[in-house]
Amino acid sequence: EAAVTQSPRNKVAVTGGKVTLSCNQTNNHNNMYWYRQDTGHGLRLIHYSYGAGSTEKGDIPDGYKASRPSQENFSLILELATPSQTSVYFCASGGDRGQSGNTLYFGEGSRLIVV
Amino acid sequence: SQWGEENLQALSIQEGEDVTMNCSYKTYTTVVQWYRQKSGKGPAQLILIRSNEREKRSGRLRATLDTSSQSSSLSITGTLATDTAVYFCATGGTNTGKLTFGDGTVLTVKP
What we know:
The complex is a heterodimer.
Chain A lengths: L3 E4 L2 E4 L5 E7 L5 E7 L5 E7 L6 E2 L7 E3 L5 E6 L8 E8 L10 E2 L3 E5 L1
Parallel strand pairs in A: 2-11
Antiparallel strand pairs in A: 1-3, 3-8, 4-5, 4-9, 5-6, 7-8, 9-10, 9-11
Chain B lengths: L8 E6 L4 E6 L6 E7 L6 E7 L4 E4 L2 E6 L4 E6 L8 E8 L6 E3 L3 E6 L1
């Protein structure tokens, strides 16, 4: 049973269009994260959240918004998609802030192509 | 090794061989995690090592951590073709819960 589920798994969007990537977790974790992964690179943090109603900027937040309407759900929003946002996006959930050694549990990724 | 300005590393070995992957990090940390990512999947944690452990084993895996040199290593003994994946080290996660990942090592194990 997948504890972190992302949708859609694949998406083709047009430049200037709006894209919403959704994530649902059943781990009952407070923290959730959105990372992007580009070919030949590791994961880079876009936005994260400590709980419902909270969103924080990560290392590369420009061009992205996030929404955490509930403990279980965390969305990543591209209001005006650009080709440079073509990437694979991963959602993760983890333990409480302040917990030493916070293990992250990842979804299977959402592949986005912006044409 | 991973991190800093270094690009993705790649290793190709035969099944049964042992392999060690290295990681150096810039920001002080007391915890290093190693993740494995198989093709088309999300990363999954393999092992977590704390500064007071210096070495930690889990099955065929062995991780080390040297905080004085800000480096960590992951060794796999008796590799299998199913060990083929990208391996990442990650630091952070203490105050904010955020993890910072290295660029990764692509390991190919040929049967």
